[in-house]
Design the sequence.
């Protein structure tokens, strides 16, 4: 038991580092950038509150687990903004390989049974093939949209994002798992882009 607890706390202490990884998206009040731990916690709350939007076959509790774990790899890799200047870094083979290595290292701190369970959950989220992972991935895409809208543009301004980019990089993912949510969000964000000729 002593060895198991040592492994569990080694992982938990390593996970604390996620609080020091800052994302491209500012907080809604524009006071600073959101950190990845705050993002993960907020997404878990999104899953809980928007559970009624989940499609058939979605296990909301499993989605919450995915969302709490999904960005731990940023401890090693950092945040890779979806709207980066060339638009290719996010989701590239190099980033995927780096994140897989980070997942192996981080989950490798845990006892074998927990390692297998949590690493499988992380991989399921990344693959985005199950109804639960699609739901979770949709939430992951919509939350920064809400922060940018509330904060007057946030990273959209920084990365010079236009409507077509947002629709292809974000809208396609959100509408796949949360079609009613994306329709609602579109009604609120489209005027922001139209007003600015984007």
Sequence:
């Amino acid at each position: 038991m002593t060895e198991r607890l040592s492994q569990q706390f080694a992982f938990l202490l390593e996970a604390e580092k996620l609080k020091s990884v800052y994302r491209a998206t500012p907080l809604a009040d524009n006071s600073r950038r959101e950190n990845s731990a705050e993002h993960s916690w907020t997404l878990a709350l999104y899953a809980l509150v928007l559970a009624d939007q989940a499609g058939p076959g979605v296990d909301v509790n499993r989605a919450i687990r995915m969302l709490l774990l999904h960005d731990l790899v940023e401890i090693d890799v950092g945040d890779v903004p979806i709207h980066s200047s060339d638009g290719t870094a996010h989701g590239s083979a190099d980033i995927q390989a780096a994140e897989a290595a980070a997942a192996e290292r981080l989950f490798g701190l845990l006892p074998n049974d927990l390692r297998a369970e949590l690493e499988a959950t992380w991989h399921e989220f990344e693959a985005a093939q199950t109804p639960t992972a699609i739901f979770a991935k949709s939430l992951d895409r919509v939350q920064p949209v809400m922060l940018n809208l509330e904060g007057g543009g946030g990273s959209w301004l920084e990365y010079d994002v236009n409507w077509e980019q947002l629709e292809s990089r974000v809208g396609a993912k959100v509408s796949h798992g949360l079609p009613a949510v994306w329709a609602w969000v579109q009604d609120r964000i489209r005027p922001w882009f139209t007003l600015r000729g984007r």
Q: What stands out?
A: The radius of gyration is 17 Å.
